[in-house]
Design brief:
By secondary structure, this protein is of the alpha/beta class. It has helices spanning 17-32, 71-74, 79-93, 99-108, 117-122, 140-147; strands at residues 7-12, 36-41, 112-116, 136-138, 151-154. It is globular, with a radius of gyration of 16 Å.
Length: 155
């Protein structure tokens, strides 16, 4: 018999629908099971918690093998917006919340939301750029301290 997972720390590094939603779904599922969950947003994953960007996350259409499109077709003007709208409609029909709603809901369950200090510095951001639910901007070492004793999941 395996031990029950008690804590997960999820690294969110991509700033697209298909990069952010898996992390949110996993964090939500963890909290629903009573598992401690922390989300560490780094690089373009910061868009999920950025005040000016979190409502404008798009589906990546260029080089996305899951769409079964030729790479050149993914780059057609407007295709990313059309596909994002299509996915949003499908998710709404399934009662899947938008990214801003999902992040707020997960934060309300007690999950920790953290921005990566190195990425924040790299992109010239500061705490005021992020939504109120962000617990802090932390270093990789501080993330490892938070993650100690649990599972680290990279999406």
């Amino acid at each position: 018999m395996t031990d029950k997972i008690e804590k997960v720390s999820i690294i969110v590094s991509k700033g697209s629908l298909e990069g952010i939603y898996p992390a949110l779904i996993m964090a939500n599922g963890a909290r629903a099971e009573g598992i401690e969950a922390n989300l560490f947003f780094t690089f373009f994953g910061l868009d999920a918690i950025h005040k000016a960007r979190h409502e404008h996350i798009k589906l990546a259409t260029v080089g996305n093998p899951g769409l079964h499109l030729a790479t050149w077709a993914g780059g057609l003007p407007g295709l990313s917006s059309v596909m994002t709208h299509y996915m949003a409609h499908k998710m709404e029909a399934l009662d899947i919340p938008s990214i801003p709603e999902f992040v707020e809901m997960i934060a309300d369950t007690g999950a920790g939301l953290y921005a990566c200090q190195a990425s924040v510095d790299l992109f010239g951001m500061e705490k005021s750029d992020f939504i109120d639910q962000v617990n802090g901007i932390i270093t990789v070492g501080e993330f490892y301290d938070l993650a100690a004793g649990g599972q680290i999941i990279f999406t």
